[in-house]
Design brief:
By secondary structure, this protein is α+β, with helices and mostly antiparallel strands. The protein has 3 domains: about 100-275 and about 350-355, no CATH class; about 285-350, Alpha-Beta Plaits; about 360-430, no CATH class. The chain has 20 helices and 12 strands. Strands 3-7-8-5-4-6 form a 6-stranded antiparallel sheet. It has a two-stranded antiparallel sheet with strand order 1-2. A two-stranded antiparallel ribbon has the order 9-12. A hairpin with a 4-residue loop joins β1 and β2.
């Protein structure tokens, strides 16, 4: 009976985790994953935690547990990356980690003896790519608001192309004074899956500001300084890595340095065609055919296989056929191809269609939740309350109606809707 009760605890935890802005539908592999990561006591507590960031005092009042009893369990969850501890300048607030960015990254950044890292890696990759439920739940309906966005290599921008500071990795670094360096979770995962060794160093996960503080405080990363951050950025340019960051225009908290062979985001875009997995930059690669020699280095470098080599002059007796680069529809606007072009034929140009990059993490989370039908959890965030459970079902059903969702996500209403949410957040709870 105890074993069956434990299974019920994990099923309840699964329902709780699935209400995050990144959905985690219940599957056989996800059951194995949560059983491998959470003890029964941890699973029981996490399934009862509020959906919004909350102080220990609020959690204690909501769960009926004392702060003294809760503190060691929550601190243990933070040390495993299963709960986030957020310092608001006065006190810590706690938030259940979503899968991404969250307990996948933090789990695979962990080091130490006797950790079942190979098993974790097997379960994560099985859930995110072996089964289709996770990708379908988050991107199968054309969702466009994702956790991360592409940063262009600034050196690859065409002449007279304007770039704003939030699109510059160098400017993002200059905004901050605190930095951290840790293991790349994707590269570490592939290492434990037995993939071929990657030429990119394992330690490439860089974070800044409060994100760096969280990682250092909980032992996931080590502190570095701004000079080291600049050096890592230069190394990524030389290695031809894809840069990505928070899908926000203000207060980005990390920069990823991604290789095409290991990165789960790039793998997802390349193998599924769901471009929303990694939001594009505001730029698009363009080819000057008069300079292109058809060497194919750009196609080899593209991390999402967006470049094909076309043939011109085929069938002409006066001129032999030659190859040239052609940019496909899923270009991320990263500039990695242009870094490899020996003739300068490839440059990044302004993308003709505007790309939605949310203002900050509050806006991103709200839009993500609205797209993925979990927005109601931020309005009624107590999983222990039956009244709030009824309100979540009622409001959630209304927000799922296609005309309602289209209207709130459309350009005409989106800004006013988000402004109203900000006002409500300031008056009732701390922003996510």
């Amino acid at each position: 009976m105890g074993h069956l009760a434990s299974k019920d605890i994990y099923r309840h935890l699964g329902k709780r985790l699935d209400q995050a802005p990144v959905r985690t539908p219940w599957t056989p592999i996800f059951r194995e994953l949560v059983e491998a990561l959470y003890s029964p006591a941890e699973a029981r507590l996490v399934s009862r935690l509020p959906y919004r960031p909350s102080t220990l005092a609020r959690i204690a009042g909501m769960t009926g547990e004392s702060e003294t009893a809760l503190r060691p369990l929550i601190e243990g969850l933070c040390s495993k990356g299963l709960v986030l501890d957020i310092w608001n300048g006065t006190e810590y607030q706690y938030l259940v980690s979503p899968l991404v960015i969250g307990f996948f990254e933090f789990t695979m950044m962990r080091t130490g003896p006797n950790l079942p890292q190979a098993r974790w890696a097997e379960l994560f990759t099985g859930y995110m790519f072996g089964e289709k439920d996770f990708l379908l739940a988050n991107f199968g309906d054309g969702q466009q608001v994702s956790v991360m966005r592409t940063l262009p290599h600034e050196e690859t921008l065409g002449a007279h192309v304007e770039i704003l500071d939030y699109e510059k990795a160098s400017a993002i670094i200059e905004e901050h004074t605190e930095f951290s360096l840790g293991l790349c979770s994707c590269r570490h995962e592939k290492h434990h899956l037995g993939h071929a060794p990657c030429r990119t160093p394992m330690e490439t996960c860089t974070s800044m500001g409060t994100g760096a503080q969280f990682l250092i405080r909980n032992g996931f990363a080590k502190p570095i300084d701004k000079i080291q951050m600049r050096d890592i950025l230069a190394r990524s340019r030389d290695l031809g890595l894809t840069l990505s960051t928070d899908n926000v225009r203000r207060d980005a908290g990390f920069i990823c340095h991604c290789c095409g062979c290991c990165c789960n985001l790039l793998l997802g875009v390349r193998e599924t065609g769901y471009t929303g997995i990694l939001v594009t930059s505001s730029y698009l690669a363009a080819v000057d055919e008069t300079l292109c020699t058809g060497c194919g280095l750009c196609a080899k470098a593209c991390p999402v296989a967006a470049i094909e080599m076309g043939i011109r002059g085929a069938g002409s007796q006066s001129r032999p056929a030659t190859k040239f680069a052609q940019i496909g529809a899923i270009c991320l606007g990263c500039g990695v191809c242009a870094l490899q072009c020996p003739t300068g034929a490839l440059k990044l140009q302004q993308r003709p269609q505007k790309v939605l990059h949310p203002e900050d993490s509050f806006e991103r989370v709200m839009l993500q939740a609205l797209e993925r039908d979990t927005f109601q959890t931020f309005l009624f965030d107590n999983p222990e309350s039956q009244t709030q459970e009824f309100m979540r079902a009622l409001v959630g059903g209304f927000l799922k109606l296609p005309p309602v969702k289209r209207a709130l996500l459309g350009e005409k209403l989106r800004s006013r809707f988000l402004l109203a949410l900000r006002r409500m957040a300031k008056s009732s709870y701390s922003p996510v």
